[in-house]
Design a protein that fits this description.
There is one protein chain. This protein has 991 residues and is an alpha/beta fold. Helices cover 46% and strands 17% of the residues. α3 packs across α7 and α30 crosses α31. The N and C termini lie far apart (69 Å).
Amino acid sequence: MVLQVQTNIYEAKTQEIAKQLLAATQENRSFFASLRDQMRWDDKLLAWTMSNPGLRVQLFRFIDTLPALNSKSEIASHLQEYLSDESVELPTALKGMLNFANPESMPGQVAATTVGTAVETLAHKYIAGENIKQVIKTVERLRKEKMAFTIDLLGEAVITEAEAQSYLERYLELIQQLVEVSKNWTIIPAIDEADGELLPKVQVSVKLTAFYSQFDPLDAKGSEERVSDRIRILLRRAQELGAAVHFDMEQYAYKDITLSILQKLLLEEEFRQRTDIGITIQAYLRDSEQDVKNIISWLKQRGYPLTIRLVKGAYWDQETIKAAQKHWLQPVYNDKAATDANFETITQLLLENHQYVYSAIGSHNVRSHARAIAIAESLNVPRRRFELQVLYGMGDKVAKALVDRGYRVRVYCPYGELLPGMAYLIRRLLENTANSSFLRQNLENRPIDELLAPPVVKDAENENFPVSSSFLGAADTDYAKEEGRRKVMEAFAGVRENLGRTYLPLIDGEYVNTPEFVDSLNPSNFSEVVGKVGLISVEQAQQAMQAAKAAFPGWKKTPAKQRADILRKAGDLMEERRAQLSAWMVLEVGKPVKEADAEVSEAIDFCRYYADEIERLDEGVNYDIAGETNRYIYQPRGIAVVISPWNFPLAIACGMTVAALVSGNCTLLKPAETSSVIAAKFTEILVDAGFPQGVFQYVPGKGSQVGAYLVNHPDTHVIAFTGSQEVGCRIYADAATLKPGQKHMKRVIAEMGGKNAIIVDESADLDQAVVGVVQSAFGYSGQKCSACSRAIVLEPIYDAFVQRLVEATKSLNIGEAELPSTQVGPVIDGNARDRIREYIEKGKAEAQLALELPAPEHGYFVGPVIFSEVSPDAVISQEEIFGPVLAVIRVKDFQEALAVANGTNYALTGGLYSRTPSHIQQAQTEFEVGNLYINRNITGAIVARQPFGGFKLSGVGSKAGGPDYLLQFLEPRAVTENIQRQGFAPIEGAD
C-alpha cells in the first residue's frame, strides 16, 4: 500500500515535469508542416519512410549497401534496383529522380550524388565525427552547451585477433588524445563536478566482445581470460590518465558472460575501489530487473558504487528473429509498452538504491526522463549519483531542456568513418521511424495526454513471438545459459566413465556376438578407445534379412498412427539424452560441442517431422466422382537397407532409418565403422521407443562384404546411402541389376557429396562474408557434405577479402573437440588426414599458399589451409577433398562467377554474399545447387526449413527433411470402386 502511494506521488510529479519538458521541446513544432516541402533531401527521405513501410525497408537496405559501392554508376544502379521494387510506392519527387535509362547517364549521376549526399548528411546527424579532430570539435561544442559526453568507436566487426588488438590500441590512443585536449578545458560545474567531487571530463564506451575475436559463452573461461587481459590494460591506462570507462551491452547471448566477467574483474584488488566504471542494462530484456537486483547486491558486497546506464535496447529485431529461428523463448518484450514499463520499474529500483549505484538514465522519451527526475527529486538523490543520457543527434531538444533544469546530461557520441558506421546509422533510423518511437509520435502531433500516459502492458505480453513454420523444431541448447554448459560438462564426465565398452549388433531383437571386433577411436586423441564394436559376418547379415522378411507383414499392417507414435517417443528419448548423445559424438567423431548439439536437434526433428508426414500421407487422396470412388493411397515397399556416414553419425543415420521405419518398411542400419558407437546409442533409443523385434536391426559390418551383400540381396527394396561418389555410383549400378528371385526394381536414395562454392560479389558485406566462409569451410574441419571448399570472389574486392579471410582463419582455435574453445577439431582418421595432406601438396603445386596453420600431433589434426589465385580447373577446385582446405578463385564479373560455380560435376550446396538485387535474383535461377544460401553460411540445413539434397553427381532422390522424402519409401496405389447397383448409387446431399 505504501509503495502504491509512493508510485502515485511519482506519477503526479512525472506528468508535471514531462509536460514542462515537452513544452520546451515543441517550440518550433508549428512550422513543421509548412517547412516540409522546403526540407533538405535527408529530411525528406526520413519523412517518406515514416509514411511508406515498403520504401522504409528498401531504402534502409540500400543504405546498408552503400559502403560497398565505389562509383556513382554503382550507386545509381543499386538505387534503381532497390527502389523500383514492386513493394515500394515512390513519392513523386523520388520517382522522377529515378526515371533514368542508364546509371552512367547524367540523370543517373545526379540521382547518385543527391541520394549519396543525403545519406552522408543523415550519417553526420548521428555520428559525432569521422576522425579525432571532428570528435574533439563536437565534444567541445557539447561542453559549451553544458553537456558531458561518452565516446564509442565505430568500425568493422571484430572477426580477427589482429582487429581485437587494434580495437584496444585505438581506444588507448583515443583516451590519450582526448585527455591531452581536455587539459585546456575549463571546469564546467554542471558536468565536471558534483557534491564536491571532480568527475572525469573524458569518458569512453567500449564493447566487451570486441576485445576477443572468438568470444563465445560456451568457452566462458577462455573468453574471460582473453578479454580480461585486454580490459585490464585499458582500465589501468584510463586510470593513469583520469578517464572513465563504460561497458556497453550487446546481444542477449553475451549478457550473462559480460556481467560475470565484469563482476569478477571489478572485485580484483586493483580495481575494487574504482568508481569511474559503468555497466549497461537493457530494459527490453525480460530478465533485466532481476539482473539489476543482482548487481545491486553485488555492489553492496563490493563496497564501492559503479554506474549503471539504463537503456531500452537496440537489437530488438535481431533478438526476436534469432529466438524464433532457434525455437528459444523470446528474451525481449514483444510489446514496446512492456519495455517502457520495465524501464520505469528499473529506474525506480536504481534510484531507490542510490547509495550503492550511480544511475545514468538513457532515453529519448520525455516521460522516461521525467519519471527519473520525479523519483530522484522525491528521494533527494545526490547529483553525483544521477545523470540523464541521450544519443548524439537523437534527443537534442530534450537534452537542452534537461540541462536547463539543472541536470547533468551526457551525450553518447559514436565516432568513426561514416561507411563502417552504417550499421549503427540503420539502427538509429529504425528507432527514429518505428511506429512506437516516442520521437516519431511527438513529430506526428499525438495528443499530449496520449504521449505522456503511463505504459499499459498487454495481457498477451508473455506469449512467445509467433514462429513462421507450422512445424516446430527442437531447440538447440543455449550455451549462453550456465545450465546448458553445466549439463554438457556432466555428460562428458558420465560418458568418459563408459568409454571402452563393447557394442554388439542387434539382430531379430537380440544382441548377438560376432567373430570380429573393431576399436572406435577418439580422433582428437587416437590412444583413447571410445568403444569396441562387433562387426557382423555375411552369414549374420543373411539372418538379419530373414528376420526383416518375417517381421514385414506385421509391421506393414501396423496403423500409421501407431508407427508415428513410436517415432515421436524416440524423438522424446533423444531430447532426454541430448547432452549424452552430443558428448558421444564429440568423442567418437571429433565434432565440436555446438555442432554436435545441433545434430541432436536435427535427429529429433527427423523423428517428429516424419511422424507428422506419414499421418498426412496415410490420409491418401480422394478423387471420387458420381457413382465411383477413387482412392490414391500408399503402402510400404518392403525391406530398407540404410548405409550411413560418419560425418553426421546421428542425424543422417536417424533421418534415413526412421523415414524407412515410419513408412512401414523393415530396416537394417549399417553405419560407418568409425561412428558405430553413436549408431549403437541410437539403436538403444529405437529399442526403448518400442520398435518391434525384426523391424529395426543394427548391423555394423565391413562395407565391402556386409554392405555389398545387403545392397545386392534380392529381398532389398530400398537402399538409402550417404557417402562418397565412388561408393554411391557402385551401389546405384549394383541395385540396377536384377538378381535371381528378385521381383521388383530397387529404389536408391544416394547423397554423394559436393564441391560447394560461395560467391562473394563487390556489393557484399565483407564482415558477414568472411565469417560465413570461415564457418562454412572450416566448421567440423570441412568434413560436411555441405562445406564450402571454393570461394569465388569478384576482382574489385578479392585482395581485401583474402586478407581478412586469412586473418580470421588464423584467429580460430584448433584443438581437441571436447574443449569448449575449439572451433576446428580433428579429421576423422589417419586415412583422411593423409589424403587431405596429399591434396594440400597438389594445391601447393598449382596455386599460391595463402595460409597453412599448424596442428596438434596427438590426434588426426589438419590445420586450416587457404589457397589463393586458384584456377577454376585446378584439382583442388574440382575434386572433393573433405577437409579444411579452401580454394579462393578470382573472377572478373558475376557472370563468370556463376559459370565457375557451376563448373564441377556436383550440385549440392552453394552460397552468395551480395547486396545487389539483380545478382540475388540471377543466382536463384542460375546457380545449379540443391540448396542455395544467400547472405548466410551454407551449412546447417534444418528439417522442414531447408530440406537437404543435391543433383548432378551430388546425389539422387528427394530432399531429406522435406515433404517428398517419405514417398521414396512408399509404393503408391490407386483403388477404384464402381458404387452403382442396378443404376442406383448414393448421392451426397440427397435425402
